[in-house]
Backbone:
């Protein structure tokens, strides 16, 4: 149980860092303003994302958009928590990935419910390619997904199938 608590505690710490970083940006910058950190590579830019991941569906004018995004986030948070609790204790890599995704999902969900949008501020661009502005919660989600992918790629087929069986038995 201690190990499960550590992963949930890690998710909570990352969630707090995400929320403090967003509050710092909102308190320091005006909407749309930019601070160059590394010229030609990285800026801090205050953006309010009213869409989904990386601004997808931001221009859709449906009054149900916020409800749908919030419901999807709540379902994802519930599923991740369920699997994080039910996952076999020896599967640390998968637990780490789930904890990172959980922290990001909760951080962005809280923004959406509290503010009606998600605060994004990491503005990355390389040689004319401009990545959509994102935040620390998005970063945690992407790293978590990468860790889960790596854990499945490098786990033995026997171990992988036993984890899948244990998770399906838990359902």
Residues:
């Amino acid at each position: 149980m201690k190990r499960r608590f550590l992963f949930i505690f890690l998710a909570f710490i990352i969630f707090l860092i995400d929320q403090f970083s967003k509050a710092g940006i909102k308190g320091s910058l005006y909407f749309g303003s930019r601070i160059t950190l590394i010229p030609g590579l990285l800026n801090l830019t205050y953006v309010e994302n009213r869409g989904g991941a990386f601004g997808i569906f931001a221009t859709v004018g449906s009054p149900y958009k916020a409800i749908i995004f919030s419901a999807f986030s709540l379902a994802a948070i519930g599923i991740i928590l369920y699997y994080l609790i039910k996952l076999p204790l020896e599967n640390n890599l998968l637990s780490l990935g789930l904890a990172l995704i959980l922290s990001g999902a909760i951080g962005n969900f809280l923004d959406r419910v509290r503010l009606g949008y998600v605060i994004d501020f990491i503005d990355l661009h390389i040689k004319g390619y401009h990545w959509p502005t994102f935040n620390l919660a998005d970063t945690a989600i992407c790293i978590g997904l990468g860790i889960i992918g790596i854990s499945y790629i490098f786990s033995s087929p026997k171990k992988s199938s036993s984890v899948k069986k244990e998770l399906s038995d838990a359902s």
The first helix runs from residue 2 to 28. DSSP finds five helices and four strands in the chain. Residues 2-170 form one domain.
